[in-house]
Write a structure and sequence with these properties.
The chain is mostly helical and 117 residues long. 66% of the residues lie in helices and 0% in strands. The chain is elongated, with a radius of gyration of 39 Å.
């Protein structure tokens, strides 16, 4: 087993190994590039689908908008029934508007005082 290889055989073996390594590297590069391209293609398609969906929803919303409703109104409006004027809806009262918390607390205190606590 102690046979030594000639310089030509060593060069031939080294060349063969380099070719195998280059072939594997090229194959890996091709896989990486194709995967990146597929990701880019998929994201472009997703963006295109999202854009189409947004346009569809925008056109649908534009069609369904009532012509009697004021544009950019801060308050919601009711639909007019049989020619009645469109009246803005009153905003719902919140707890802070009615001071509900303060009244509730006072009521509890009054009840406790009346019950002798």
């Amino acid at each position: 087993m102690g046979a030594t290889l000639s310089k030509e055989e060593e060069a031939r073996i080294a060349q063969k190994q380099r070719e195998e390594i280059d072939a594997l590297a090229a194959k890996y590069k091709a896989e990486v590039i194709s995967e990146r391209l597929s990701r880019v293609r998929a994201s472009k398609e997703a963006r295109a689908r999202a854009k189409k969906e947004a346009e569809r929803l925008a056109s649908k919303a534009a069609q369904s908008k009532s012509s009697t409703a004021p544009q950019n109104s801060a308050t919601p409006t009711r639909k007019a029934k049989s020619g009645a004027p469109v009246v803005p809806l009153r905003p719902k009262k919140t707890v802070s508007d009615t001071n509900g918390d303060a009244k509730g607390v006072q009521k509890v205190k009054d009840n406790q005082r009346d019950n002798g606590r």
